[in-house]
Amino acid sequence: MDGEILEKYRSAGRILAEVLEEARPKVEVGASLLDMAEFVEGAIRLRGAQPAFPCNISLDRMAAHYTPTPNDKSVFGESMVKLDMGVHVDGYIADAAVTVDLSGHDKLTEASCAGLEAALELVGPGVSTATIGKAIEDAITGYGYKPVSNLTGHGLSRYLAHDEPAVPNKALDKGEMLNVGDVIAIEPFATNGSGRISESSINEIYGLSAPRPVRLPAARALLKEIQESYKTLPFARRWLKGERAEYALMQLLRSGVVHRYPVLWEVEGALVSQAEHTVVVLENGCEVTTNPRNPL
Ligand code: MN
Ligand code: MN
């Protein structure tokens, strides 16, 4: 990998680690979800970077993709909170998440961390994603829980928050070989339920799929805003400005120009924990960009 690009991945990771450390203690019973998301996104911008996607704050059975609504009044209760954030520097992304458990399920939180640690010990060139998936599954089942089998880690590339290869959270027959220069986000999810998630009907995060000419002026203006500000990265409904933005968003959705990232939740309503880091594969192993204080 080009040294300049590596440095951009590193600075995105360093900024994310700093913001995560500041945000984490703010997750308390009674604190506002909207304040938390705005704090995280603001702190990223204050450091001269941009959010790579809206701050995800997913509670309890939700595994991913919840971000506060534009006028969200909700506050944290005694929940299992997943704080998942993304930072990009010139399109080069860092993606990491922690579980802050206010629900009294420490072991379930530890299980996803153990899955992540087991995976990070293995990452290097020539290692198969199947081997990583098995290590994650073994670590989580060792705690008596199940990994969420239909959610995976993923590759990262410029302005693409979800690229190849998928990094499974369970053993697979066949994986993909990691190569020097690959950037991957590894994100084990552990659950005390069935181990499967499905799409809910809650949609607060959207992304560009296929830009094409649109006629409605408000929709055209929104498409321009998306292409300029977010490119192919996800954005929040909450981020859109202007009275007609909501209407324009629905138009873009209907014409297939944007797609939703529905909230993903555990099918039985069981709790889900998550741990995530971003890693660059290097000749002698890997570097965890989102954990610069404790290089592995
Ligand atoms: Mn993430
Ligand atoms: Mn991710």
List descriptors.
296 residues, alpha+beta, Creatine Amidinohydrolase, Arc Repressor Mutant, subunit A, 3-stranded antiparallel sheet, 17 strands, binds manganese (II) ion
Could you explain how this protein is built, in words?
The mean pLDDT is 96. The protein has two domains: 3-201 and 270-288, Creatine Amidinohydrolase (Alpha-Beta Complex); 205-260, Arc Repressor Mutant, subunit A (Orthogonal Bundle). Strand 16 (277-282) and strand 17 form a beta hairpin. It has helices spanning 3-23, 33-46, 106-122, 129-142, 217-229, 245-254; strands at residues 50-59, 62-64, 80-89, 92-101, 146-147, 153-157, 160-167, 183-186, 189-191, 197-199, 205-208, 235-236, 258-260, 264-266, 272-274, 277-282, 285-288. Strands 7-6-8-16-17 form a five-stranded antiparallel beta sheet. Strands 1-3-4 form a three-stranded antiparallel beta sheet, covered by helices on one side. Helices cover 30% and strands 28% of the residues. The longest helix is centred in the first third of the chain and has 21 residues, at 3-23. It has six helices and 17 strands. Helix 1 runs antiparallel to helix 2 (33-46) and helix 5 (217-229) crosses helix 6 (245-254). The structure holds manganese (II) ion (MN) (2 copies). The site of one manganese (II) ion (MN) has 5 residues, from loops.
